[in-house]
Amino acid sequence: MKDKNDYQDFQTATSNATNPIPFSDGNKLSQIGDMTNKNDYQDIQTATSNATNPITFSTGNKLTQIGDITDKNEYQDIQMATSNATNPSPLSEERYIEGLTTLKDGLILLFIEGILCDAKLKTATEIFPVHKVVLSAQSPVFKSMFTTEMKEKTNDFVEIEDLDADTVREMLFFMYSDILDNLEYERAKNLYFAADKYNIISLKQKCSDFLKQNLQHLNCCDVLLLADTHQDNDLKRYVQNYIVENVEAVCNSDEWENFVENHPRLIITTLCTLLMRKRNRKS
Question: What is the rounded distance in angstroms from the CA atom of residue 89 to the CA atom of residue 151?
Fold first, then answer.
């Protein structure tokens, strides 16, 4: 050897190769080698102990022995890992739910993109691809067209001559989404007509509510005629009561004069309502 240190290294190497290292067996040591220092021995003890002894996991208030954890932190890390694997985090579930598409969202997308359509509605200026199942679910009139021996069932084609394209588009969007946004008076009247024609009850009710809320002495005659034409007694009574309560402003309007000339029957029924109201007040 060149020096004393080289000689000692050589001795260590040959000693480890020929002498057995000690391993723990209960409280005894089985000789299978000679450790160069105390730390080497402790490292090998830990490794072999973890391989042969079960680690402990919590089950309720008891510990199930499946290994020997070297420190408290290791035990807590393993507990957390197994807990996350078996008990999903509420936060992760919320994020998962947020990422889901609702049925309504999916239907709107199918309508907008015109995917998987099996029928068409045709107006004077535009054709709308639609899904029979959606229209049938919302309208008994469409359901009858698509399920009975009518030409619409055979042709998969519905011609609409009395509604403009904008009204049909908004009617269809409501049927797919149940959404009715940015409604104004003329649109409400047109959609009311469409809803009554195809017996879309929820749409008709929304339009009726809008007309009631926006009733004025300048349009009450128009709404009264609409309600009478579609035999909507609820809306008709509401308008008649409005006229009775605002009789002076209504009767002094040009709309009322035109209404008297063109719809005398409705004027008579409205006046009868006014007289009955006064009589009830006196009694």
Answer: 55
This prediction's pTM: 0.64
Q: How far are the Cα atoms of 61, 234, 253, 264 from residue 268, in angstroms, in the given order?
A: 85, 18, 18, 6
As a whole number of angstroms, the distance between CA 237 and CA 274 comes to 11
- For residue 27, which of 43, 51, 45, 50 has the smallest C-alpha distance? 45
Cβ count near 7 (within 10 Å): 11
The tokens describing 2, both together, are: 């060149």
Concatenating the DSSP letter of every residue in 210-233 gives HHHHT--TTTHHHHHHHHHHTT-H
pLDDT tens digit string along 173-193?
A: 999 999 998 899 999 999 999
Cα(271)–Cα(247) distance, integer angstroms: 10
Q: Which amino acid, one-letter code, is at 279?
A: R
Nearest 5°: the CA angle 258, 264, 265 is 140
pLDDT digits (tens, 9 = 90+) for 124-150: 999 999 999 999 999 999 999 999 988
What pLDDT is stored for residue 213 in this prediction?
97
Give CA 88 to chain center in angstroms: 22
- In the beta sheet, which residues pair with residue 157? 120
The two tokens of residue 129 are: 């691809």
